Hints:
The chain has about 220 residues and is of the alpha+beta class. It has four helices and 13 strands. The protein has one domain.
Amino acid sequence: MKFKIAILFFIILFVQSCIPSLHPLWTEDTLVFEEKLLGEWFQEDSDGKFIWNFSGGFDEKKNRPEDYDLIYTENKSEARFDIHLVKLGDHLFFDIYPDDLDYLKFEDKTLAVPLGIQGFGSGRSDEPDIHLNSLYFQHMLPVHTFAKVEFGAGEVKIFQIDMEWLGDLFEQRKVRIKHEKTSDGGVVLTAPTEDLQKFFEKYAEDPKAFMEPIVLKRSQ
Length: 220
């Protein structure tokens, strides 16, 4: 059970190779819609175990871009995210944020947070197969994470920030973007959206700023 919960939290927060931020990267004027993102994609070299399914992205009534709905599946474990596609200068970025956590699946089992915690659980009366610890979940902070995005022929490349590169900038005091260090040595960005946008636009073309991309291929 502990192994399952550990995997669940990994899925929810995308903590691997991501820099968490308290504030979003997007504003209404920076949102864009790319229809080619819609549909199901599988992660290259994952034997179909990592699936990204995008829907939404455009509000037809208001005739403007909105957030995409992402269902991310990892080894049959599902989690849902709100994805904003942000254009800064000539570059596109994902702003990834966990959706309401009242619906999650692990190996085809529905998970729910008991007690209907605001922002997490729905308080539904149907009995889930697995209950998460409600007190523990109250101490989980939903955060934004960001990644540069490039579209190619039948593929999407997702470039995550290189945490070591960013840590070196902070240590050398080469950047002044607001952040806090956590007790385990991690970093949480606390800068407002305007400063985040300036930072990511400035370093968008710096090859040292990003790790090797996650490559998504269109499902057949």
